[in-house]
Amino acid sequence: MIKKILIANRGEIALRIIRSSREMQIQTVSVYSDIDRHAMHVRLADEAYHIGPSPSADSYLNMDRILEAALQAGADAIHPGYGFLSENAEFAEKVKAAGLIFIGPNPTAIRTMGDKITARKTMIAAGVPVVPGTEHIIKDEADANEIVRKIGLPIMLKASAGGGGKGMRLVHTKEELMPSLRAAKSEAGAAFGNDAVYIERYIESPHHIEFQILGDQYGNYVHLGERECSVQRRHQKVIEETPCVLMTPELREEMGEQAIAAARSVHYEGAGTVEFLVDNKGNYYFLEMNTRLQVEHPVTEQVIGIDLVKEQIRVARGEKLAITQDQVIQRGHSVECRIYAEDPDNNFMPSPGKILKMREPYGPGVRVDGYVYEGFEIPIYYDPMISKLVTYGASREEAIQRMIRALDEYQITGVKTSIPFLKKILKNKDFREGNYNTHFISTHQEELFAKEASSTEQEMEELAAVTALLEYLEERKSKIFPPNGSGKKHSMWKEIGRKKAMTRL
Ligand code: MV4
Predict the structure, then answer these.
(1) Are strands 101-102 and 77-79 parallel, antiparallel or unpaired?
(2) What's the pLDDT tens digit per position in 59-112?
(3) 343 vs 347: CA distance, rounded Å
(4) Which of 159, 246, 448, 471 is in the most buried spot, having the most CB atoms within 10 Å?
(5) What is the CB < 6 Å shell around ligand 1?
(6) Is 292 one of the annotated active-site residues of the chain?
(7) Residue 452 neighbours by CB under 8 Å, 6+ apart
(8) pLDDT at residue 459 tops 80
(9) Rounded to the nearest whole angstrom, what is the distance from the C-alpha of residue 360 to the centroid of ligand 1?
(10) Could you give the angle at the alpha carbon of 504 between the alpha carbons of 498 and 505, nearest 5°?
(11) What are the structural domains of the chain?
């Protein structure tokens, strides 16, 4: 039984987990750092424990403090959310050793998929197609030459301890190979404390398509369809959608089965994601498996009609999957936009600060997974994501049109946001036609970063906020000092001073 869950996270995902827990009548415990004392996840949980200073290394990554809070609160499970400790095998082990349930896969699955060379080996053994390349760590320069001779150029050098684009290097020519190899190894060593590097053939203009899977503790699996995540900037996803425009029922069934094979090979339990690169001929290759609930999980929830957090909890408490593959039906279309406190006109610099005024969109087919409120100050210490705006529609066209409408309604002042940039993507012809891959943003650079449109919009928002404030002040002023009708100008400032003096008398 799970009666009380500690959520080892913050922000929108902490709220997301609190909500599902509450609907299941499970108590919730939040943890928070110094700066998050007044954060929404602290307010919405049944209990909250302070776990340390603001930097995540001292709080949200502090395993012992989190475990201490869990034991003190009498929680029987820990949900790690995404990021932070969610893919840390050692943490999953510690949670178990403390007699608690880790809401996630077994530590071995996390470890296997966390090391990208081990993951590749495991996939090859399971018969899942991987990008042609090495099955082992590159031993030396001769080894690298031999591999390149076999698979040809261009290739990508990737850090085994990396993932998500960290420590990657594209190599076009023989001359670049050795310097790139040396650089990649030293970078990986410095960044991850592990300089193991492997080689993959470079896939030109691929799509990033991932499959959501769900497994229980008894070896039952279903896949919940795909998400198209090719709209990325510096390996950060910007827009995700499901279903994917280029998917066919046949390809979906085949890739879904391979995703399940990947999960099965590591006895995966709970919700997980298998990422693939898909080329324009429909060839697909395993890339990575994410052993956590992902940021973009809501689009799957919208079209499948399932609550993934509840499923994670049910699996963790030992229930069998309630659905079989033939009961999984994708209905309609869903799009997610990640709203960041970043300045698209200034190289996406983080724009932390206080939310002054905010009006969030709602209405048919709109879901906002957020956590900020008016007066909340977005901390500099963590990811600057403000919210995820998710729309649902009967068709792709409706979901996109709804997204544009919702973005038009969305008003945030106090910080710069990625909203104007998102609108430009949604209005782009190629995006509208579903004609895009991982190069989309760089291909449409000029159009998407055309300055006037977005800065004008931002200025209009600011002007609207200032106008609202002036009108409010004007209204208050006329209540306190009704117009005297004499038409004679006098200093309001002096008059306020006199009134203050009067009240002191
Ligand atoms: C690749 C690739 C082409 N060929 N691997 C980037 C993130 C990381 N998950 C893997 N990435 C890539 N790996 C081979 N063998 C191209 C990318 C890539 C990419 C992948 C998904 C989404 C956006 C991307 C942007 C640039 C490069």
Answers:
(1) parallel
(2) 999 999 999 999 999 999 999 999 999 999 999 999 999 999 999 999 999 999
(3) 7
(4) 159
(5) 131, 156, 164-165, 200-203, 206, 208, 230, 232, 235, 277, 287-288, 438
(6) yes
(7) none
(8) no
(9) 33
(10) 90
(11) 4-103 (3.40.50.20), 132-201 (3.30.1490.20), 204-331 (3.30.470.20), 338-451 (3.30.470.20), 460-504 (no CATH)
Instruction: Determine the Cα–Cα distance for residues 464 and 458; give it in Å rounded to an integer.
Output: 10
Q: Dump strand ranges (E) for 80-138.
A: 101-102
Find out whether 209 and 226 touch, Cβ atoms under 8 Å.
Answer: yes
Strand order in the sheet with 4-7: 47-52, 27-33, 4-7, 77-79, 101-102
Residue nearest to atom 24 of ligand 1 (CA): 438
- The catalytic residue among 16, 65, 201, 292 is 292
Instruction: Assess contact for 389 and 407: CB atoms under 8 A.
Output: yes
**Residue 201 alpha carbon, nearest atom of ligand 1:** 15
Residue to substitute in 203, 229, 240, 438 for testing ligand 1 pocket (most ligand atoms within 8 angstroms of CB):
438
Per-residue pLDDT tens for 13-54? 999 999 999 999 999 999 999 999 999 999 999 999 999 999
Distance from Cα 165 to the centre of ligand 1, integer Å: 7
Our mutation pick for probing the ligand 1 site, out of 158, 201, 208, counting the most ligand atoms within 8 A of Cβ, is 208
Q: Residue with the nearest Cα to atom 11 of ligand 1? A: 165
DSSP for 28-72, please give it: EEEEEEGGGTT-HHHHHSSEEEEEE-SSGGGTTT-HHHHHHHHHH
Q: What's the pLDDT score for residue 336? A: 99
Atom of ligand 1 nearest to the CA of 288: 9
Nearest alpha carbon to residue 158 among 128, 121, 116: 116
The HSE-up count of residue 404 (CA atoms within 13 Å, CB side) is 12
